[in-house]
Amino acid sequence: MRCREAAAADPPRRFVDEAYWAKPVPGFGDPRARLLVVGLAPAAHGGNRTGRVFTGDRSGDWLYGALHRAGFASQATSTSRDDGLVLTDAYVACIVRCAPPGNKPSPAERDRCLPFFGRELALLPNLRVILALGAFAWDGFLLAAGQLGHPIGTPRPKFGHGATATIGPWRLFGSYHVSQQNTFTGRLTEPMLDAVFTAAKRAL
Fold first, then answer.
1. Model confidence over 10-33: pLDDT tens digits?
2. Is 19 part of a structural domain of the chain?
3. 10 Å Cβ neighbour count for 166?
4. At 135, which CATH number?
5. Whole-number pLDDT of residue 93
6. pTM value?
7. Helix or strand holding residue 112 (H, E)
8. Confidence at 86, pLDDT banded by 50, 70, 90
9. Which one of 26, 60, 126, 155 is separated from 82 by 20 to 30 angstroms, measured CA to CA?
10. pLDDT score recorded for residue 152
């Protein structure tokens, strides 16, 4: 796709010697996971650069730090695919598989990638809890669940930080995304993120 080719062809200066993946980034974690964390898309200079979702950028530091504090991750940081990070009872994926232009995925990209996300859900049979990072991931999960035959309900569950809903066999939790746009401004704090992970863990 043009979006990932552009990201690989024009890296920032500090990454100029890095070999970009420039291909779709798969999910990562424990295949027996009961918890699935869903993001928007790989960051152009994070997951797209390293080849592992939420790896090599500050958003990943926030996410894996929270997973570590909650007991799901073996370490609090993620810098590369071979850094030794192991997830236990948790899996991390994105709705969109490639780094989108401007780091902002579109509904069209979401719809193209959704069948792959649906297959990922089917390959994780022990899932009980879904934690959606941001409204885009929340809505993407609802669409995928509907395509898999699970009623969404009326009114449609609305995203919010700390929002919850029951969809088919899963309990869905919402959190603001761990992007710097939220963490630098204080819209999302570590205690806020930890509180959502605590609630999700209780639901397991």
1. 777 777 777 777 788 999 999 999
2. no
3. 12
4. 3.40.470.10
5. 97
6. 0.93
7. helix 107-122
8. very high
9. 126
10. 94
Instruction: Indicate the pairing of strand 90-94 with strand 164-167.
Output: unpaired
Residue 141: inside a domain, yes or no?
A: yes
Q: Alpha carbon of 122 to those of 41, 188, 203: distances in Å?
A: 20, 31, 20
Residue carrying structure tokens 């700390």: 162
CA distance 49 to 63: 17
Average pLDDT over residues 47-52: 90
- For the stretch 65-71, contacts whose Cβ atoms lie closer than 8 Å and that sit 24 or more positions apart, written own/partner, are 65/190, 66/178, 66/190, 66/193, 66/194, 66/197, 67/37, 67/92, 67/197, 69/194, 69/197, 70/194, 70/197, 70/198, 70/201, 71/201
In-domain check, residue 17? no
- Tally the domains of the chain: 1
Contact call for residues 63 and 92 (beta carbons, < 8 A): yes
Residue range of the domain that includes 62: 33-203
Total Cβ atoms within 10 A of residue 144: 25
With beta carbons less than 8 A apart as the criterion, state whether 4 and 98 touch: yes
Extended beta strands in 105-197, E state: 129-133, 164-167, 170-175
